[in-house]
Design goal:
The complex is a heterodimer of chains A (201) and B (286). Chain A has 201 residues and is α/β, with parallel strands linked by helices. Chain A is 23% helix and 24% strand. Chain A has a single domain, classed as 3-Layer(aba) Sandwich (Rossmann fold). In chain A, the strands form two sheets. In chain A, strands 1-10-9-5-4-2-3 form a seven-stranded mixed sheet. In chain A, strands 6-8-7-11 form a four-stranded antiparallel sheet. Chain A is globular and about 50 Å long. In chain B, a hairpin with a 3-residue loop joins strand 6 and strand 7. The radius of gyration of chain B is 19 Å and the shape is globular. Classes of the chains: A alpha/beta (201), B alpha/beta (286).
């Protein structure tokens, strides 16, 4: 029998989940704004922001797809234990896709919903090395415009994969379809919903 | 927060955590698709439909210990619905409550937007009876979904045009349809059209909950919200010849109040907080 170390999730399940959600609501409604998510510790390779987000949003009614680096017993058993979420191997049926920046699945495979029900699309959670609202050396600088942004906002994402940059600038799925992307780095979170117009500087 | 005041035997903010998560996921999709109605598994609340069960479920999913809650019904903090909902959340969360618009971080409203401009960081939760703006024209949900998908909104303009043909102007005075972010036609809930301009590029986050119809929708801050109109019949808000009989305001939305059985009537501000603050300032200057 192999034993997996279960790790503490939220210290206060009700309060922490509410705080994490409020931060997610803030970043999703105001793309480019950074919020801190440090309600949990690191779970193996999963950063605190990513672990907190999973605990706040997942449960037995959601299917999650894990990229290779997170698809191990420690991460999956801990997520299952704390949230009861269903793991899936088929990325096209996942409600949430959790991956590291260098292990993106083929974005064209992800669930988009339909024109009648665009909310049924997948939420893509991407763990990156670092996020900032000031320019990080060597990082991708993005300028964001759209709902939730007065004028424009600039963000700097370390290790943003080229495929994701291309997706964001080209937006192959016509609105209202599209992926809502949550970038998680350390204990920082930024969201780029489908409405945001992205330019690379 | 004062933990002593929280009623025993209930989860924080009444709803169970699983329900809150479901509503929270719907809210995140709602802000990602401004103006689009996200279906959600609406729960029974300890009051009948029509009293704000949708708004309450949204508030329950959003509210936290550090929030300061304001509840208004038709602009007033002191009506039955507002007092009851405020007491409900005070008893089941222990959060601070207020009647002052500027103090509140979270405002649940029925049919009004406060007169005082909302600030960044504030969240406004609307109680919505019928979320579908096309419902009175097309009773089938399958059809209205398709119309939204195809941006087939011509019929909405016909409805407004029929007003013009019949009355010479657009007679729709409340629940006046808006176009959100240039894409979805949305029912702003039965707020007077006087309040429609306040929704446009508001720094506050606006969330809408319809309990009976089980729909959630949202307008993120700084989002274009345009009231539908015609070039030759541009959108206009109501105006009054009278001023508020209490504070004398000529800018606020006025309610007509019958004073006796002789037909005497007066106009007073519908926003009680706005009216009270103006009175206090007047008293100071006098």
């Amino acid at each position: 029998m192999n034993s997996i170390a279960l790790q503490v999730g939220f210290k206060d399940a009700v309060t922490d989940a509410q705080q994490v959600f409020r931060s997610l609501l803030k970043v999703m409604s105001e793309p480019g704004v950074i919020e801190q998510l440090d309600q949990t510790d690191t779970l193996e390779t999963l950063c605190p922001a990513a672990f907190s987000t999973c605990l706040a949003l997942l449960d037995s009614t959601t299917r999650i797809w894990l990229a290779e680096s997170f698809d191990n017993d420690s991460v999956s058993k801990n997520l299952s234990f704390h949230t009861g979420c269903r793991l899936t191997r088929d990325v096209s049926e996942a409600d949430f896709v959790l991956c590291r920046a260098d292990q993106l699945p083929a974005l064209s495979q992800l669930k988009l919903g339909s024109a009648e029900y665009p909310d049924r699309g997948c939420t893509l959670l991407v763990q990156v090395a670092q996020l900032s609202d000031i320019a990080l050396p060597g990082a991708t600088q993005l300028t964001l415009q759209g709902p939730g942004i007065p004028g424009q906002r600039s963000i700097s994402v370390d290790s943003l994969p080229a495929e994701l940059t291309r997706y964001l600038t080209e937006r192959p799925d016509p609105f209202p379809l599209g992926l809502d992307i949550v970038l998680l780095g350390g204990d920082a979170v930024i969201a780029i919903p489908r409405t945001t117009v992205v330019e690379v500087n | 927060m004062n933990p002593q005041t929280i009623r025993e035997g209930y989860n924080f903010a009444y709803l169970d955590e699983q329900t809150k998560r479901m509503i929270r996921r719907a809210l995140l999709k709602a802000v990602a698709i401004p103006g689009y109605q996200v279906p959600f598994g609406g729960r029974e609340m300890p009051m009948p439909y029509g009293w704000g069960t949708g708004g309450m479920q949204v508030t329950a999913a959003v509210i936290g210990q550090t929030d300061c809650l304001k509840v208004i019904d038709q602009g007033a903090d002191d009506t039955t619905n507002a007092v009851s909902i405020r007491a409900f959340f005070r008893d089941l969360t222990g959060v601070k409550t207020t009647e002052r618009t500027e103090e509140a971080t979270l405002i649940q409203t029925r049919h009004r937007i406060p007169e005082k401009p909302l600030q960044a960081g504030q969240v406004l939760v609307y109680q919505v009876p019928i979320p579908e703006p096309l419902r009175f024209i097309e009773p089938s949900e399958v059809e209205t979904r398709k119309m939204h998908a195809l941006e087939d909104y011509g019929v909405m303009h016909i409805k407004l045009y029929e007003d013009i043909a019949q009355f010479g102007h657009i007679a729709t005075a409340y629940a006046y349809p808006v176009l959100v972010n240039g894409r979805y036609v949305m029912d702003p809930s039965p707020i007077p059209k006087f309040d429609n301009p306040k929704m446009d590029n508001s720094p506050a986050l606006q969330l809408f909950g319809a309990g009976r119809e089980k729909r959630i929708y949202a307008i993120p801050p700084y989002t274009d919200v345009k009231s539908l109109d015609f070039e030759d019949h541009p959108f206009e808000v109501q105006k009054w010849e009278q001023c508020c009989a209490i504070c004398g305001s000529a800018e606020s939305f006025l309610d007509e109040v019958i004073m006796d059985d002789q037909g005497t009537h007066e106009f007073i501000c519908s926003d009680t907080d706005y009216c009270r603050e103006r009175m206090e300032n007047l008293e100071v200057t006098v």
